[in-house]
Amino acid sequence: MVLLRQEIGDVLRHARRRQGRTLREVSSVARVSLGYLSEVERGQKEASSELLASICGALEVPLSRVLHEVSQRVAAAETPVGMRVPDTVPDDLASALEGDVALSAPGLVSAA
Amino acid sequence: MVLLRQEIGDVLRHARRRQGRTLREVSSVARVSLGYLSEVERGQKEASSELLASICGALEVPLSRVLHEVSQRVAAAETPVGMRVPDTVPDDLASALEGDVALSAPGLVSAA
Asked: What is the C-alpha separation between B78 and A64, in angstroms, rounded?
C-alpha cells in the first residue's frame, strides 16, 4: 500500500537537500522540532496540515507543488508491476512500451 | 492558510457524492466509522495515511488522482487575490487577465 506520509516525507527531504539546508535550519524556520521534522521526512509521523504548511513555507516551496510531486510519485507506485518497463528492456522497446502505442507494439503482441 | 485536510475532505466528499453513495456505505466498505469519515470530509480531522488509502479504495478512486485534484485546488487557493479574475469582469477582459498577457492588459495598466 502506498502511504501518503512516506511520499510527502521523501518530497520534503529532497526539497531540503536540493537547497543544501540542514534539518536544524529548516526546523527552526518552520518552528517545528528537529525530531518532528526528521520523523516527517522519514515517513514515520503524519504531518498535521498546519505543520506541513509551515514546513513548506520554510522551504519556500508551495504546498501545491509538493502535492503535485507526491501525486506523481503515488501514481508511479500505483502502476501495476506488469505495466512497468523493466530496467533491462532495450531503449527502443522501452520507448514503445512507454508510449501510446504500447498495446500495439510488436513486442507485446508476440509475447501475449 | 490552505489546509491540506480541508482540500482532501472536499475532494473525497465530491467523489462520494458523484457516485451517489452515502457516508454509511463508504465508511462500511472502508472499515472506518461513519463519524470519522464525516469529520475527514468536513476537514475537521486529519486522515491517517492508512485510512486515507482505505477510503480511496472504498471509493475506487486512486489516491494519486485524489492528490492531483487536491494539488490543483491548493494551487488555485495559493494564487494571490490580485491575480484572480473577479466574477464581475467582462468576459473579454477576463480572458486577457487569465492569459499570459495579463501584465500588459490595458485594464491592469490603467488601474495601476
From this structure: 8
B68 and A71 within 8 Å at the Cβ level: the answer is: yes
Average pLDDT for consecutive 10-residue bins of chain B (112 residues)?
Answer: 95 98 98 97 97 97 97 92 59 50 41 37
Q: What pLDDT shows up at residue B90?
A: 52
Q: Can you tell me the distance from the alpha carbon of A57 to that of A97, in angstroms, rounded to the nearest whole number?
A: 39
The secondary element (H helix, E strand) that includes residue A16 is: helix A4-18
Q: How far apart are CA A28 and CA A22, in angstroms?
A: 10
Write down all domains in chain B, each with its CATH number in brackets: 4-78 (1.10.260.40), 82-112 (no CATH)
Q: From the CA of B29, how many Å to the nearest CA of chain A?
A: 17
First to last CA, chain A: 28
**CA–CA separation, A111 vs B24, rounded Å?**
45
**Cell numbers placing A74:** 503515488
